[in-house]
Amino acid sequence: MINHPVIVLGAGATKACGGPLTNEILPAALNGEMEPNNPKTLVADREQLLDLTRDFLCECFNVPVKNFQITENDCPSLCWVLSMLQRSIEQNMNIGDWKGDHLIKAKRAVEYSIFAVIEAALKGNSPNKHLHRLLLEPLYKQGIEPSVISLNYDVIIDNAMFALGESYQTNKPPNYGVEFSTQQYFNLCKSGTFGHLLKIHGSLNWLYCNKCNRIDLFVSDGMRAAKALDELFNFVPYDDAYSCRGTPCRNKKCNGFVSPILVTPTYIKDYENQYVESLWKRAEKVLKRADRVVIIGYSMPTDDIEVALLLKRGLDHLPREKITVVEYVQGDEYKPFSKRMPLENHSTGLRFRSLFGPNIDWQTSGFEGWLKDCNMSNRSTF
Prior knowledge:
This protein is of the alpha/beta class. It has two domains: 1-19 and 126-382, Rossmann fold (3-Layer(aba) Sandwich); 22-123, no CATH class. Helix content is 41%, strand content 12%. The protein has helices at residues 11-16, 22-30, 43-61, 78-90, 100-123, 131-142, 156-168, 183-188, 227-235, 274-288, 305-315, 347-356, 366-376, and strands at 5-9, 147-150, 196-199, 202-209, 215-217, 247-248, 257-262, 292-296, 323-326, 361-363. The strands form two sheets. Strands 3-2-1-8-9-10 form a six-stranded parallel β-sheet, with helices on both faces. A four-stranded antiparallel β-sheet has the order 5-4-7-6. It is globular. The mean pLDDT is 87.
C-alpha cells in the first residue's frame, strides 16, 4: 500500500501535454505563436511589451528579429536571459545600452512573452492530453494525497489538481505550501486542502511584491478547469497582470509593483526569496517520507546541481525499484520493452544512474506512452 506518493514534473511533462519546452518559448513569442492581445487589457501596453522583447533580444543577444521565421538556434537560452536580467537589475548594472528602468521593462516584457506562449498552448490543450489528470485520478479516488514537485512555470498541474479535488475531494484545492495573501484562495482552503503542489521554480500566476513581500495567486483565462478556479478568476483576474508600467501591488498600503516568481532552472537560484526557500525545504521533507516516486520529463542537466542534490538527499532512503524515471525516446512507445533504449545508453539515464544506481525503474515511452503501458499491462502507476 502506497501512502506517500511523490511526483516530480520536468519540462518534458509539459511538452507531452502540448506545451512548450523552455528553449521553444522565445522563438514562439518572436514568431507570434501566442495568445492575441486581450481587448480588456490596454493594447498599447501589450504591443509595447512584444516590441520591447524583440528590441532587447535583437540589441543585446543578436537575435535576427527581421527573419521570417526565428529558430531556436537564433535565440539565447531563456534561462540565460532571465538570469542576466535579474542579476543586472539587482546590481544596478547594464546589459549593452539597456539599464535602470529600461532593463526592468525588458524583464517584464520577457516574462509576458513566457506567459503569452504558455497561455496560448494551455488554451489549445486537447482533452485527450490531460495526462496529469489521468496520472493523479486513481490517487484522488482512493483518498491518497499526492505530493507534486513541479519544476515548471505553467499551470497544467494546477488545473488538474483543482479539477480532481472538485470531482473527488469535496472541492478541496491543493496546498501550495505558500501563504498567499489572496483572500479567495484562503476561503477555499478553510474546509481543508488535498494534495501538495510545490512549485519550487515559482509560477507564472504567482505575483510577488518585493517591497512588502506580499504574494498573490492570480488566475489566467486559460486556467479555468474547475469552479474554484472560476471563482478565483472572477476575484483576481490576470488580464492586467502584465504592463510596461508594472502591475501595482494589491496591498493598499504599498506603492510597489509585482512580478511573477520565476526561478531559472540553471545559473542563478533565488533562494533569498522567503517563499522559494520555504518551498525547497518542504520539498526535501516530502521526498524523505516518500514511499514511491515518479519523475516525469526531467533530464537532470549537469548544471542543475540544486535539483540533483535535492533528489539525492531526499530519495537516498528509497528502494531503487520504487523510483520511476519517465523519459521520452522517439519511437520507443511502439517497441516492446526488450527493444527500448536501456539506461546505460541514454545521457539522462546515465545521470540518474550516477545518483541512484542501475536498478531504478527506467521508462522511455514518454509520459503518455508510460500511462498507456501501465493501462495495457493492468499495472498500477503507483
